[in-house]
Design brief:
With 540 residues, the chain is of the alpha+beta class. It folds into two domains: 283 residues, FAD/NAD(P)-binding domain (3-Layer(bba) Sandwich), CATH 3.50.50.60; 180 residues, Cholesterol Oxidase, domain 2, CATH 3.30.410.40. Strands 1, 2, 12, 13, 14, 15 and 28 form a seven-stranded mixed sheet that branches. Strands 8, 18, 19, 20, 23, 26 and 27 form a seven-stranded antiparallel sheet that branches. Helix 1 runs parallel beside helix 14 and helix 5 packs across helix 14. The longest helix has 18 residues. The protein is globular and about 75 Å long.
């Protein structure tokens, strides 16, 4: 029977840096398991290719939530990456660390070592910010972080419009000043997506002590008593057992990780035993505390020079494609959004609780699932609430790993969340009607001028509200009875088992969650190496 020191389940944003760190010791055998395939593909590497990956059957888990009463019975589509690099290989490549107070709150909730001063060295260590290195930013790390290669004039005008309403301009929202308005940064290098796989695994994949297996869907964690001893995987339709002499590390993300724990007998008895699974350890927090950023999109028909829609539609898109192939520049080399404004939903907020994102283009989804740029010029502006009060659940659909988990986010069930989002839509309108950008607006398409009152806006949210695809929190770290892991990311009550991914977040961060998910992997890898458990005897 195969035995490794460490088995890492999931080669995504967190699992990739864990594998890199643990395989630094030549005498340490590391197995990195990924359910999906490799990620060296043209549309994965091309930033604009994210539109083709949104519903991809091969590279995407294609989750869907349960119908939600408050969204008029709608289920919501949740894409998650199913390939090397995980969601960092299919996402919008936006790099936002989060507000300093987010991490201080993690620390204050019973997680020493996770305050901002504690995690800042890891953010700096993991990145190569192409513009500079200083007390806030790092260079020389494996993950490339860059500014947009093309900055459209309407994006500057959006910044000026927000600034005219009192929002400060920040030249680096990952630096000293997070709140305010400014250009976003992206995990893009030389016009190509720079995923966690590309940053952390590709340069070291030839290490003799690192084994990478794609197409390996983990069915359950194996236990001897309360000790994790290995995993059972399905490869080519056949089950295989692989043993771990030191630790099993779960990095499957906020949906797959709690599902795998429950399939392995770890969680709430009422979620496990009805599926014929033997209980290993009662952990009531597994799959609870599901959080996501509820998202509203608005659309504005614009003057032609305000949008690059025309360059990506009709015959012009072929010229744009040729230009990209020759130079790795142009609109195909851009991330999903250009500008972000971090604003407060009310003056009573301690710091910004809304993220408004601007992009000088618009798209819609075709029947085949592909996102295609609209032929008419337009500007898109979205908003989501950063610190939602609403929590949901991830539970089992069956006792089979092949059956997707039941995801119930319970959006629009908290009055505070609803009020904050209504404020966000009103603030979008204020910005888009400010003189600095108003001349670029031909008409408001969504919500549309007929949506006037708070009730109208609420109805619009019910009809069109979506997800920013920032799921987290389902195996949170802490010290209360619902905490699944401790501050060293060890599963409470069990031995030699850790969770290292976005599911350990006690609450979401203020912004896109990929950067903090990678940081969790970098810090988690260091902690596992520091703890260096002795090898346990492994019997055949």
């Amino acid at each position: 029977m195969e035995t490794y020191d460490y088995i890492i389940v999931g080669a995504g944003s967190s699992g990739s840096p864990v594998a890199r760190r643990l395989s630094e010791a030549p005498d340490t055998k590391v197995l990195l398991l990924e359910a999906g395939p490799h990620s060296d593909r043209f549309w994965v590497n091309t930033p604009a290719g994210m539109a083709k990956l949104y519903f991809n059957d091969l590279l995407n888990w294609n989750y869907k939530t349960e119908p939600m009463e408050k969204l008029r019975g709608r289920g919501m589509y949740w894409p998650r990456g199913k390939l090397m690099g995980g969601s960092s290989s299919i996402n919008g490549m936006i790099f936002i660390r989060g507000h300093q107070k987010d991490f201080d709150s993690w620390r204050d909730l019973g997680n020493p070592g996770w305050g901002f001063d504690d995690v800042l060295p890891y953010f700096k260590k993991m990145e190569h910010f192409e513009r500079r290195s200083d007390e806030w930013r790092g260079q020389g790390g494996p993950l490339w972080v860059s500014d947009p290669v093309v900055k459209v004039q309407s994006s500057y005008d959006f910044i000026d419009a927000a600034h005219s309403l009192g929002h400060p301009v920040t030249e680096d929202m990952n630096g000293a000043m997070h709140d305010g308005v400014g250009f976003m940064q992206h995990t893009i290098k030389n016009g190509q997506r720079f995923s966690a796989y590309k940053a952390f695994i590709k340069p070291i994949r030839s290490r003799a002590n690192l084994t990478i297996r794609t197409g390996a869907h983990v069915q359950r964690v194996l236990f001897e008593g309360k000790t994790a001893v290995g995993v059972e995987i399905l490869r080519d339709g056949k089950p295989e057992k692989v043993m771990a002499a030191r630790e099993v590390i779960l990095s499957g993300g906020a949906i797959n990780t709690p599902q795998l724990l429950m399939l392995s007998g770890v969680g709430r008895p009422d979620e496990i035993t009805p599926h014929g699974i033997a209980m290993v350890h009662e952990a009531p927090g597994v799959g609870q505390n599901l959080q996501d950023h509820f998202y509203i999109h608005t659309s504005w028909r614009s003057t032609p020079d305000s949008s690059y829609n025309a360059s990506l539609a009709g015959l012009r898109k072929y010229w744009e494609g040729f230009k990209y192939l020759m130079t790795r520049k142009g609109y195909l080399a851009l991330g999903s959004s250009q500008v972000a404004a971090f604003v407060k939903s009310s003056p009573d907020e301690d710091y910004a609780d809304l993220q408004i994102s601007f992009r000088p283009m618009t798209f819609d989804f075709q029947p085949d699932g592909e996102a295609r740029v609209e032929p008419e010029p337009g500007m898109g502006v979205s908003v989501y609430q950063l610190r939602p009060q609403t929590t949901g659940t991830v539970t089992l659909r069956s006792g089979k790993a092949s059956d997707k988990a039941v995801c119930a986010p319970h959006f629009l069930t908290d009055p505070y969340d609803i009020g904050a989002m209504i404020s966000g839509i009103k603030q979008i309108r204020e910005i888009m009607n400010a003189p600095a950008i108003k001349s670029r607006v031909v008409s408001e398409e969504l919500p549309g001028p007929h949506v006037k009152t708070d009730d109208d806006i609420y109805n619009f949210m019910e009809e069109t509200g979506n997800s920013a695809h920032h799921q987290g929190g389902t195996c949170k770290m802490g010290r209360d009875e619902m905490a699944v892991v401790d501050e060293r990311l060890r599963v409470r009550g069990l031995e030699r088992l850790r969770v290292v991914d976005a599911s350990v977040m006690p609450h979401l961060t203020s912004g896109n969650t990929n950067a903090p998910s990678i940081m969790i992997g970098v810090k988690g890898g260091d902690m596992i190496a520091e703890d260096a458990l002795p090898r346990r005897p492994v019997s055949a």
